[in-house]
Amino acid sequence: MSNTTLKKIAKVLDISISTVSRALKNHPDISVSTKQKVMELAQTLEYEPNAMAVNLRSKNTKVFGVMIPSITNNFYDSFIAAVEEEARKSGYSLMILQSGDNPEAEIENLKIYRQNRVSGLFACISQETINMIPYHKMKEAEIPIVFFDKVPDDDAFDKICLADKDAAVLAAETLLEKGKKNILAIFGNHQLSITKRRLSAFSGCMKEHKQVKLIVEHANNSQQAEEKTEHYFQPKQKPDAVFCMSDEILTGVMKSMQRMNMKLPVDTGIIALSDGSFPKLYYPEITYIETSGYKLGKLAFERMMDYIIGNTEPKELFITSRYVAGGSL
Amino acid sequence: MSNTTLKKIAKVLDISISTVSRALKNHPDISVSTKQKVMELAQTLEYEPNAMAVNLRSKNTKVFGVMIPSITNNFYDSFIAAVEEEARKSGYSLMILQSGDNPEAEIENLKIYRQNRVSGLFACISQETINMIPYHKMKEAEIPIVFFDKVPDDDAFDKICLADKDAAVLAAETLLEKGKKNILAIFGNHQLSITKRRLSAFSGCMKEHKQVKLIVEHANNSQQAEEKTEHYFQPKQKPDAVFCMSDEILTGVMKSMQRMNMKLPVDTGIIALSDGSFPKLYYPEITYIETSGYKLGKLAFERMMDYIIGNTEPKELFITSRYVAGGSL
DNA sequence: ATTATTTTCGCAATCGTTTGCGAATATGAA
DNA sequence: TTCATATTCGCAAACGATTGCGAAAATAAT
């Protein structure tokens, strides 16, 4: 059983294709009796309009592209989940492509998005220093782009970010309030702008308090975070708190805590920036500053729709952070 | 700058659209000089073929549908990652839709897939007792379907599953070999076929050993697993091993272990069925039987391509399990 | 120079849907 | 009956790309 088309329905009922089309759209020009016949037959033949034909004619695919570094990442997953939820409500579908943090794959993906004439693109760029020309070309081709999370340093684009500075400051202030004096802060890769923003905000806040001893470390992955942690937890002197810039670092730190058999929050304290799923895995649950991919997705989608209805002035929006008390501090 | 089309190139060079099309495809009918001119202009105008037009004519979208319960799930993420990798190599894209474990959303999604004339569908059904008619209709509409993970009990379809029985048996045998005598086994929701298969294989294996005391419990989520664990770990008598059917259960159990301050593997042992990411979060790392979503994706894709080239006889394939030693047993 | 052959390209139909415009039919008014 | 209006529908073009077939132009053969 091949696919039902307007033509097929038209042939069976011996009427024109246009009439069938209009009947299905409940066009006033078509008589009630004809409409009924058409709709009935369409039902039994399970007619579904061919999206490609519709799109070709309307020049609107109702598909959004979403480009992320990797799909096996909680943060981006919840971003996607949020976007998908909203997209579905508005009759859009998603075309999700991974860049693997590789600029070449990124450009390859842009090509695919252009070929498929996506109605818009949600993009998270892979690196700091990236060639933005292909993105500018997309905008010229009238494909709106909303950058999220890792965004370019370019005012011509719409950007939705976490309020990294606020979050880092909030974490720092919390540590200070709790009277922590000897803090180990582990950040991600130096190169990343997200690291720079969080680091500068965090240490800037700490700098005002001379009595606090702050150790700043960087880890490129979970295992490095584990090693750094063990390095600084010596029998003679242990930090009284650890700040984790990300989930990846948190998991490394926690593994180390378990190995050292440290009891939270008595032996030391922990605070993290996280979307909240990992902190809830542990007992006691980790106190964290929420950086929600889900909220980010909601806001990014909102911005996209706003852009589409004509509000094209580039904006940079932020997701505000929230303190979530666990039992680790 | 609107989008470049064949027509636009043709007009500029004052040749026919057909010639442009053939030139870009390096057709032998076209002279070298013409080809050069066309390709050059296409380059500068950044021509990208309109996928909708191509698909409409070729009746092949080069898009695979992927339907999963939720995208915020490690297992399905790695499945998708695998499928995407392979799809990209073959020039396919993915249309990922979530069912939210809701049969109605599932049917809604099938509609979207049909409208978009996907070249094939990877589907993970939401429940045990589902109406399979819509899926049969898809097959009749010549859209190949490969079910994965949660598959229907219907021989007409292709199915790619984890070798649940093998995995459960492997876990059980491992526990027996280690000389465990008092085992708490926590499974997921009763209703799920995956639970039934794993449970029957596991307890079937245990039944042959009368000297082993086996407690079987069910938990619908992580928190329930946590509660059940605490319930059975009494000061007087503690199980000497816990079997966790899934990551969700493992995380609950581990939280409970941390609360009770149990040291693995001395105070008790743990083994899980998992794809491996969660077991590596803990210290000591959890011993597990690997149930890889990634491998599942690779195999599912392979099967899909095999089907497409004409091998349409329905098959049921399994991903074999692997014992991965951690330090928890 | 004439015919045969090859090179090079354009016409037109097609995929499935939408829509402006005009035509046919029906209904009403006079 | 005749003209005016309303109802109902079909024609054809368009979206962008592909391709069989045939035609014109260039080259080779006699």
Q: Can you give a write-up of this model?
A:
- The structure is a homodimer of 329-residue chains.
- Chain A has helices at 6-13, 17-24, 32-44, 51-58, 74-89, 103-115, 133-140, 164-177, 193-207, 222-232, 247-260, 293-308; strands at 63-68, 93-98, 120-123, 145-148, 158-162, 182-187, 213-218, 241-244, 269-274, 287-290, 316-319, 322-324.
- Chain A is elongated and about 90 Å long.
- In chain A, the strands form two sheets. Chain A has a six-stranded parallel β-sheet, with helices on both faces. Chain A has a six-stranded mixed β-sheet with strand order 7-6-8-9-10-12, sandwiched between helices.
- The first copy, chain A, is 44% helix and 18% strand.
- Chain A has three domains: 6-49, no CATH class; 61-163 and 294-320, 3-Layer(aba) Sandwich (Rossmann fold); 164-290, Rossmann fold.
- Chain A has twelve helices and twelve strands.
- In chain A, strand 8, helix 11 and strand 9 form a beta-alpha-beta unit.
- Chain A is of the alpha/beta class.
- The first copy, chain A, starts with 5 loop residues before the first helix and ends in a 5-residue tail after the last strand.
- Chains A and B meet through helix 4, helix 5, strand 2, helix 6 and helix 11 of A and helix 4, helix 5, strand 2, helix 6 and helix 11 of B.
- Chain B binds a DNA duplex (30 and 30 nucleotides) through residues 5-7, 15-19, 21-22, 25, 28-31, 34, 49-50, 52-59.
